[in-house]
Amino acid sequence: xxxxxxxxxxxxxxxxxxxxxxxxxxxxxxxxxxxxxxxxxxxxxxxxxxxxxxxxxxxxxxxxxxxxxxxxxxxxxxxxxxxxxxxxxxxxxxxxxxxxxxxxxxxxxxxxxxxxxxxxxxxxxxxxxxxxxxxxxxxxxxxxxxxxxxxxxxxxxxxxxxxxxxxxxxxxxxxxxxxxxxxxxxxxxxxxxxxxxxxxxxxxxxxxxxxxxxxxxxxxxxxxxxxxxxxxxxxxxxxxxxxxxxxxxxxxxxxxxxxxxxxxxxxxxxxxxxxxxxxxxxxxxxxxxxxxxxxxxxxxxxxxxxxxxxxxxxxxxxxxxxxxxxxxxxxxxxxxxxxxxxxxxxxxxxxxxxxxxxxxxxxxxxxxxxxxxxxxxxxxxxxxxxxxxxxxxxxxxxxxxxxxxxxxxxxxxxxxxxxxxxxxxxxxxxxxxxxxxxxxxxxxxxxxxxxxxxxxxxxxxxxxxxxxxxxxxxxxxxxxxx
Length: 482
Fold this sequence. Notes:
Blueprint: E1 3-4, E2 6-8, E3 11-13, E4 17-23, E5 26-36, H1 39-57, H2 61-77, H3 79-90, H4 94-117, E6 121-124, E7 130-138, E8 141-145, H5 153-164, E9 168-172, H6 178-189, E10 198-200, H7 205-214, E11 220-224, H8 227-240, E12 243-247, E13 252-256, H9 262-274, E14 284-290, H10 294-305, H11 326-341, E15 345-348, E16 369-374, E17 389-395, H12 398-406, E18 410-411, E19 413-417, H13 421-430, E20 435-438, E21 454-455, E22 458-459, H14 469-472, E23 473-481
Parallel strand pairs: 1-5, 8-9, 8-11, 9-10, 11-12, 13-14, 13-19, 14-17, 16-17, 19-20
Antiparallel strand pairs: 2-3, 4-5, 6-7, 7-23, 12-22, 15-16, 18-21
Helix pairs in contact: 1-7, 2-4, 3-4, 3-6, 4-5, 9-10
């Protein structure tokens, strides 16, 4: 079986041990063995990045553009192959996985262009005879810690801007899904970027992640993952003076008003709640439905969910693949039981199932769950489940729907289904979320615009698009006497 090593200072370096990468659609299928590093590997990677930074930070923008464009081109050329790998290791359906890979390629090509678009300002001073220049410079060695649910897109949207703006990188991908990150690292390694500029260290978060966060030569940390881990990283970074960017949890509301197009509302809700197995930080897990449309909506949702095919992520016709791991499956199922114990009614789904493909192969499959007659204070409506589990809350009118939507510690994405321009406009302004969707699924964002939320969902500058420069650069103001 192939062993995939860490990439440190331009060389593939064995870890202290290895760990198997297992297919959640078929637990007998081991994709490969992947290196498990330790703190000494982080030290070596950071040292390599530190040594490479002085030259890379002032390298020509054309060379950076060419390298990132080359990376993007190879990703796009191999999107079906890489998409198959992604579906195999994470459980996202093959079409979704191919789409994610394509997005990663587009991200690199976008930031190849940003290498050439980095702008500054030239202003007169209030003092005669003095000029002022405002420019942006790279911040140094950046530690990137990425999650398992988007194993190539999220690494791409952190790596690409970091490199575009002249930083050096040490990345720790999620331990559950190292394959896509390793494949991306291999492409970057062959792009012509100098040794040490980009480094990959795989392993446990408590070992590799902690070593990155605590390392004195790491200037900044960008993290996507759980709220608890994110808060610990923020505290450590503040203490050491590191720049920090966090994308964490969500408990995203999808409001459905009485005047909504029922078929449209049901379809966008099904897409938001259950596709990608509900394992998206932008997924809707709270369906907030006004009184008159509530009965018809619940019935139509049950009918729509009955058509969802759960099975092998790489099989044709599969709508929803497996949950990523045994631990995640147990968490998802436990929240269904918690909701029922608190008084919610399980309308459909909510149990572990065998693979629908008839293969007989064991995987982490779960029938999507719809809980009705829930109330805002139930745990199912307060805590992030991160699986194919949605609850429905009945409200009287738009005003109550907005209040319930905002009654959460999170604020990443929020959606509304309505034919009223008045309510759509009001919701866009007053929903306490970083991203708002009108008559669209809450999960689904573009690569060229900012991504991020409010409250407990995000901390620090936005990711993606031109707003990425806020994190990956520092501003310098220079005065010159004429």
